[in-house]
Amino acid sequence: MGSNVDSIRMMKESLRGDYDSLIEEKISSLPNFIIIGAAKSATTTLTTVLPRHPDIFISKPKEPKFFGRYHSKGWEWYASRFEKGASMALRGEASTLYASRMKSFRYAPKLMRRCLPNLKLIYVVRHPLDRIISQWRHYRGRTPDCADFSDLMDNRTLRRLVVGCSLYHRHLSSFREYFPDNQIHCVTFEDLLDRPKRTLRTMLRFLGVKPKLQLILESDLTLPQENIAGAKGRGHVDKPQWTPKLKKRVLKVIKPDAKKMLSYMGKPKNYWDL
Q1: Helix (H) or strand (E) holding 33
Q2: What pLDDT digit, counting tens, does each position of 197-218 carry?
Q3: Segment 64-109, tens digit of pLDDT
Q4: 2-265 is a CATH 3.40.50.300 domain
Q5: Does the global pTM surpass 0.90?
Q6: How many angstroms separate the CA atoms of 211 and 55, rounded?
């Protein structure tokens, strides 16, 4: 509890400008791009392949979660995550909780803009229903007492965090309140897997470096599969099935948001089969 209280206090101090001189001093050891989400949408894959590019450094850990839960660790700690990349053109991290519905990250967009105004943001999204299944399996594999998939809409935690993370346009709007669209790049999980060359080329040009895809992609020009269900010591969880009733309830919540997100990205209305 104390750590959370300290983080909130320090976030307010950062917003007030109390650490501006320290941030300026450490600017070459701070990120200039952040992958903000969404969870289970190939963010781990991106942080695996992007450092293959000679101009890109990814922090360790890849999810420092600094603009929220771990803000109490301080700006010197955060800068130390990127020190080895101080000489590189791009330094990034990928904390998917920045675009979540967790209260401890509610200041993330405002904090990023206030403290690192030139940040470029990457938001990776995925078919909302597929992403929900993947996140539930991930959560269930880590948390044995996780509610059943059938309770998705009746369990407060699952509804808020798992279903809520698929409300992409709502989360993106929180960042667009502070960042102009030319500093935000949205990409879909499906395009990354189906059209990796074109998708990564566009992303890297947005970030401001030459693509050099031959260094990033696998020998067969595909992306590796990372952080799949059952990985990293999590128990294997069978893929659940949608019942018509549950699917209808979930779609009632997420479909309007998905339409707005597809429109924002310039994707056809039927890009995701909803």
Answers
A1: strand 33-37
A2: 999 999 999 999 999 999 999 8
A3: 999 999 999 999 999 999 999 999 999 999 999 999 989 999 999 9
A4: yes
A5: yes
A6: 10
3-state SS assignment for residue 208: coil
Query: Which residues fall within 8 angstroms of residue 148, CB to CB, at 6 or more apart?
Result: none
For residues 122 and 141, give the distance between their C-alpha atoms in angstroms, rounded to a whole number.
27
The tokens describing 82, both together, are 């990127």
Q: Which residue has the tokens 């990776």?
A: 124
Decide: residue 44, CB within 10 A, 0-12 exposed, 13-18 middle, 19+ buried: buried
Cis peptide before 38 (omega within 30 of 0): yes
Cα–Cα dist 160/101, whole Å = 7
> Domain segments of the chain: what residues?
2-265
Q: Which amino acid is at 165?
A: C
Look up residue 139 and give its amino acid: Y
DSSP 3-state of 158: helix
